[in-house]
Amino acid sequence: MRLSKPLILLGLTACAAPSAQEFRPTENVRGASPEGQPAASYEVQDQTGRIAEAAVWSRGVYRNAPGQPTYLDVGIEVRNTGSQPLDLDPSLLSVEVFGVNGAQAAGQLAGMNPDGPATRTIPPATARDFNVTFALPQGMAPEDVNSFRARWGLVSPDRRRYVQFTQFTPDTTRTTTYAYGYAYVPAYGWYDPFLYDPLAPRVVILHHLPMRRVVIVPGRFR
User: Fold this and answer.
1) Is there a contact between 211 and 49 (Cβ–Cβ < 8 Å)?
2) What percent of the chain is predicted at pLDDT more than 90?
3) Across residues 19-33, what is the average pLDDT?
4) How many C-beta atoms surround the C-beta of residue 118 within 10 A?
5) Average pLDDT for the chain
6) Is the pTM of this model over 0.85?
7) Is there a single domain that holds both residue 40 and residue 60?
C-alpha cells in the first residue's frame, strides 16, 4: 500500500540542565539593572559632596554543564556626577560566598567587561556599566550557594578609595530552570513538544533542523 502523504518521523529527547540561581541585594534596593534584576543604589561622597551614584545587581550563579565550573555574575553601574574621572578598581573587587551548610568560600575574579586600564575609567558626567564574573571553588554548584557578599570600590585621581559591600540572598521569584528539547524531523515536518515549566521564567528550546512551528502549551511538561 502506498502512502498518499509523506511519512514524518519524530524523535524527541528532553532533559533538564542544572538550574541557575538568581539573587537580589538585601538593602538599598531602589532600582533595577538594564535586564530587570533588582539593584541596590548608593551615593558616593567626598568632603565636597556627592561625586557619583552607583547601582549593583547580580545576574545570578550558573554553570554551563554538570562538572564544569560555577560562575557568579555581578553588574555595576557607575554614574560620575563629579568633576573628576573615577576608576572601577579591580583590586577592590571580591566576593565571599556562603554555602547552605554555613561554609564560607571566596570566588576568584575571572573577568570584567569592559576591561583594561582605559575602559575602567568613568569620565565626569558619564555613566558606565560593568559586568564582573567570579569563578567559584571547584565542586560548588549553583544550588550550594546560600548567599554572597560582593565588595567593589572606586578610585579618584588623587588615589582616594571608596569601598562598599553589597549582600545578596536568593531571589526565589526569579529562579531559572532551563528545559532543553531536541528534535530530529524533516524541515517540512511539524514539531509540537508541549514544553513548559510553570516555575521557570524562561524556557530554552534547541532544535537541530529548522521547524515551521514550535508550540508551547501550559501544563504539559513536568
Assistant:
1) no
2) 49
3) 89
4) 7
5) 77
6) no
7) yes
24/8 Cα distance (integer angstroms): 47
State whether 158 and 48 are in the same domain: yes
Q: Find the largest Cα–Cα distance for the chain.
A: 91
For 17, half-sphere exposure in the C-beta direction (CA atoms, 13 angstrom radius) is 21
95 with 6, same domain?
no
Domains: count for the chain: 2
Average pLDDT of span 41-66: 90
Query: CB of 153 within 8 A of CB of 177?
Result: no
What's the CA gap between 170 and 174, in Å, rounded? 9
pLDDT of 168-213, one tens digit each? 999 877 654 444 343 344 444 444 444 444 344 444 333 344 444 4
Partnered with residue 27 across adjacent β-strands are none
C-alpha grid cell for residue 77? 553601574
- Phi then psi for residue 142, to 5 deg, are -55, -40
- Residues 97-121 have a mean pLDDT of 90
At 214, is the secondary structure helix, strand, or coil? Answer: strand
What gap in Å lies between CA 222 and CA 121, rounded to an integer?
Answer: 48
